[in-house]
Amino acid sequence: MTRKDIERIAIESNKLLPVELEALVSREEDASLRSPGTAAHYYRFLYLLTKELKPSLSVELGTHTGISAACLAEGYPEGCVITVDCIQRVLDISRRPNVEYFHQDSLKLLNIAEKSIDVFFSDTYHDGIKPKQEYELYLPYIKEGGILMFDDISLLPEMKVFWENFKPQGEKFELPVHGWAGFGIVIKDGACS
Description:
The longest helix has 12 residues, at about 40-55. A seven-stranded mixed β-sheet has the order 3-2-1-4-5-7-6, sandwiched between helices. By secondary structure, it is an alpha/beta fold. The two termini are about 20 Å apart. About 30% of the residues lie in helices and about 20% in strands.
C-alpha cells in the first residue's frame, strides 16, 4: 500500500461506518461526523484501512475502551487484532470475536513471530518517550510495507517533539483524520534498521 492509497482512504473516511459500529463510535467517543475539527475521524480510517489492506495481524497498543480495536476488527473480520492496555476498561459493546485483549504494559513484548504485523497502532502514553520505545521494540515484528500509526502527535509538546525528531525506517507523513490532535503514519521500508 502506498502513501497515495492511504491518503485516499483518509479522504474516504468521512463516510459513515456500518450502523452498529457508527453508533458505537459516535455515542461513546463523540466522533460523529459533526465533531468540531474532525471531518474524518480516525476510527473510520482504521475501519477502511483494514477493509482494503486485509491484514492478517493488527497490533494496537492502548486499548482504552476497545473502539479502535473494534474498527480494525470489523474492517477485516478474517484477520486477527491484538490489543494491549495496562488498564482494563474495554466496553462490552466494543468486544469482537477476532480481537485478543491483553492486560499488560505495552513494553512487555507479545508472543508473536518476527515480520508478522501488517498494521501497528501506538496510542498509549503520550509523553514522546513511550511511542519511540514501542516503535523500537516492535519494529522487527512489522512486515516490510507494514503500516504504523501514531495517535495524538500534535496533542502535547512532548509528542510534537517526538514526531518532528522521529526518524523511522520508512516513509513518515501525517493524515487529517484526528483534527488538531494529529495522526502520524509510517510505511515501513525493507532497509535494515
